[in-house]
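stage 2 :: seqdesign
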């Protein structure tokens, strides 16, 4: 099956979202709050919905957070490479 360029981009975005969802489910809110730090102040323009707040990790502040971020980055990069190389 050959995908168009738009189809490949859409597939990469869907897989990245899937990786974020699975990681958020596996970590849970407690570990996410320990390993990642979110913004302290919110303005009107920085508000998120329920799904956006649930998927928002923040930036890593511990070694575990950096490890999780690196693994997620690796998996997203690997899946994108596979999609572009073979589809």
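stage 2 :: out
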């Amino acid at each position: 099956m050959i995908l168009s360029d738009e189809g490949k981009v859409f597939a990469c975005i869907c897989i990245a979202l899937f990786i974020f969802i699975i990681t958020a489910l596996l970590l849970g809110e407690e570990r996410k709050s320990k390993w990642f730090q979110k913004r302290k102040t919110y303005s009107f323009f920085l508000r998120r919905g329920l799904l956006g707040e649930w998927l928002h990790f923040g930036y890593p502040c511990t070694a575990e957070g950096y490890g999780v971020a690196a693994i997620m980055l690796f998996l997203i990069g690997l899946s994108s490479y596979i999609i572009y190389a073979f589809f």
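stage 3 :: structure notes
- The longest strand covers residues 36-37.
- Strands lie at 36-37, 59-60.
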